[in-house]
Design goal:
The chain has one helix and 27 strands. It has 336 residues and is an all-beta fold. It has a domain at 214-336. The relative contact order is 0.09.
């Protein structure tokens, strides 16, 4: 009886090796021409292109297992093992990450055929983007609602510029081992999730969101600022990243208090709050902020001139002047 094992050569071709489990059974090693693909269940499949002479090899080879990401940001799948196996085989596919969708990751794979021709193709993996407890970016492989088949952990630090979040890593690619920088760009919008929480939600229609643990936010006339610590393996101190959102405060009768942020493509979205508002003199309003739906205290406040507040801001300022109370709650159906 021959035990078959799998590996991948430097050109991302599947290699089958066999070793006899009893005397007289020969060993073999065969490089199979073909390319990988991923089915709707995130199972890795190798589509055989050129049959091996004298070998009974199927047209497709299915490789089930658990997905992960290597330190060099290559894809790795640890194959399911039988009860007779002591250790599980692992297959590593070298390549680069092309991009990130709301519920997908696109991975570029380069290969060389038996005739020497080189091609590049893409693997599309379905899953959910999340942040782990150390504020690192992760990708949970699996369809929405279905069982997970592994998690890709991006161990480096990400950067935030406005509404764009980027992750850059150095990668050793191809048989030559040349190194280069690759950048993944995420497009989404920020939400404030409590006193020490910040959420970056990806494109509409996806269920992916990075929920980061933060320090207490800082609120100013045209900006909201948070510090996020990103954990590293074998590091005593996290890497600190600062998220700064620029926008405009607005008071309306319907929505209460909001901070309007403009995205890179010119679209505007609102981060909503409730707030305890009171006059401080010199035509300014002091606002003690709370979350929009949770109404939990955010530990921050902002002082604004009535001239800065857009829309109904000046009407709200006159409303405060007409009240005998020292303060009033914005965003709680106040009639004015």
């Amino acid at each position: 009886m021959v035990k078959t094992r799998y590996e991948v050569d430097p050109y991302n071709r599947l290699v089958m090796t066999g070793a006899g489990t009893r005397a007289g059974v020969p060993r073999y090693r065969r490089v199979i021409d073909g390319r990988f693909r991923i089915d709707s269940a995130n199972t890795l499949i190798y589509q055989v292109k050129t049959p091996v002479n004298g070998a009974l090899i199927p047209h497709t080879i299915r490789l089930k297992g658990t997905w992960s990401l290597t330190k060099d940001h290559d894809l790795k799948i640890t194959l399911e093992k039988s009860k007779r196996d002591r250790d599980a085989d692992a297959v590593t596919i070298a390549g680069s990450i092309l991009g990130a969708g709301g519920n997908s990751l696109l991975f570029a794979v380069g290969t060389r055929s038996a005739d020497g021709s080189r091609t590049t193709y893409a693997l599309d993996i379905a899953g959910t983007w999340q942040a782990d407890r150390d504020n690192r970016l992760t990708f949970r492989v699996g369809k929405d609602g279905g069982p997970a088949s592994g998690t890709l952990v991006f161990r480096g630090a990400w950067e935030a510029r406005g509404n764009t979040l980027t992750y850059t890593y150095e990668h050793r690619g191809g048989p030559s081992g040349a190194r280069g920088l690759h950048t993944i760009v995420f497009h989404g919008r920020w939400e404030i999730a409590g006193r020490t929480g910040l959420t970056y939600t990806l494109s509409a229609g996806s269920n992916s969101a990075f929920r980061f643990r933060t320090g207490v936010g800082s609120f100013a006339g045209d900006r909201i600022e948070y510090e996020v610590g990103i954990g590293y393996t074998n590091r005593l101190r996290p890497r600190i990243r600062t998220v700064v959102l620029y926008g405009t405060w607005r008071v309306t009768k319907d929505a209460g208090l909001s901070f309007d942020v403009e995205t890179a493509d010119g679209k505007v979205y609102a981060i909503t709050f409730t707030a305890e508002a009171r006059l401080t003199g010199a035509d300014t309003v002091a606002l003690k902020l709370r979350g929009g739906s949770s109404r939990r205290a955010l530990g921050g406040s902002v002082e604004l001139s009535h001239a800065i507040l857009r829309g109904d801001g000046e009407a709200f300022f006159r409303f405060l002047k007409s009240r005998e109370e020292t303060s009033v709650t914005v965003g709680a159906a106040v009639g004015w």
